[in-house]
Design goal:
Elements (H helix, E strand, L loop, with lengths): L5 E13 L5 E8 L3 E7 L1 H4 L3 E6 L9 H10 L6 E6 L2 H5 L6 E2 L1 H4 L5 E7 L5 E2 L1 H5 L37 E2 L4 E13 L4 E5 L9 E6 L12
Antiparallel strand pairs: 1-2, 1-12, 2-11, 3-4, 3-6, 4-5, 7-10, 7-12, 8-9, 10-11
Length: 223
């Protein structure tokens, strides 16, 4: 389980940045803030420790009374998005309820992070686009089966189509995490993160950025 601290953000799009050595790096621009700590999960009360982080602004008429009461008790405005981040107890103690998470205190340039989001929905697609099937041969009188998937089962035994066969269907609009992406630049004043490569999701979609779990030595997150 990833217990590195993280933030929520909004994918703004893509750009490119020139490094001091002259390299041109394609980056995804994420508006990661301001992120406000709206609550805590403690070992004594909940059995685990976690930060409850809020991002964005929610209209008052779209917030039900139980949620509005929780946010009012915490002394924060109702956020549009709320997410829990499992963290260690010492990290939890450094972020009080109602405080704003500063990007330059949480991340460093050159650090590797994991970015989670929801991929763009592509509707109903065939096997060639959905599963990268090669399709059938294009010569020798082939017709009607150029982009078909081929056989999907056996004849007598077991005499049925087995589960998990790759077939046409709904493609995209699913949770995806891209691992070990490098932070190229941090603009703490504008709450911007420039991350090398691509991140999942369409423009203006919600993403979660937290320290990488599989390459902890490549860039250690701050507490």
């Amino acid at each position: 389980m990833n217990t590195n601290p993280g933030v929520l953000g909004r994918k703004l799009g893509s750009t490119q940045i020139f490094m001091p050595n002259g390299d041109c790096v394609s980056c995804a621009v994420i508006e990661a803030g301001p992120n406000t700590v709206v609550g805590h999960r403690t070992k004594e009360k909940d059995g685990y420790t976690a930060l409850i982080v809020g991002f964005g602004k929610r209209k008052a008429q779209r917030t039900n009374k139980p949620l509005a009461g929780q946010f009012k008790k915490a002394g924060v405005d109702a956020p549009q998005h709320v997410r829990e981040f499992r963290v260690a107890a010492e990290v939890l103690a450094n972020h009080a309820v109602g405080s704003t998470i500063a990007l330059d205190q949480l991340f460093t340039e050159g650090q590797t992070v994991d970015v989670a989001g929801k991929t763009r929905g592509r509707g109903f697609q065939g096997v060639v686009r959905r599963w990268s099937f090669a399709g059938f041969v294009q010569t020798h009188g082939t017709h009607e089966y150029r982009r078909h998937g081929g056989s999907i089962g056996t004849n007598m035994t077991p005499g049925r189509t087995l589960p998990n066969i790759k077939m046409p269907g709904h493609y995209g609009d699913e949770a995806l995490t891209v691992l070990n992406q490098k932070i190229v630049k941090i603009d703490a004043e504008k709450h911007l993160l420039l991350i090398a490569g691509g991140v999942p999701g369409a423009r203006n979609s919600l993403v979660a950025v937290r320290g990488a779990i599989k390459r902890p030595n490549a860039g250690k997150a701050k507490a």
